[in-house]
Amino acid sequence: IQNAIKAMKEVNIDITNQTSDVIDVNILNKADIVVTLCGHANDVCPTTPPHVNRVHWGF
């Protein structure tokens, strides 16, 4: 998180008060695609419905 805060400050964007939230199941059910980003998200994120295309871009 600290690296993200530092990187965003370099372009004058303050994300120090941002938080991650659990995905609302209703929104997830309406999604066409879900992209996970953090390194462990592919392992720890909840299972997506069968109709949702899930892509992992680990950093």
TrEMBL record:
Protein's recorded name: Arsenate reductase
Top-level taxon of origin: Bacteria
InterPro entries reported for this sequence: Ptyr_pPase_sf
Organism: Bacillus cereus
Lineage start: Bacteria, Bacillati, Bacillota, Bacilli, Bacillales
Matching PANTHER family: ARSENATE REDUCTASE (PTHR43428:SF1)
Gene name of the record: arsC
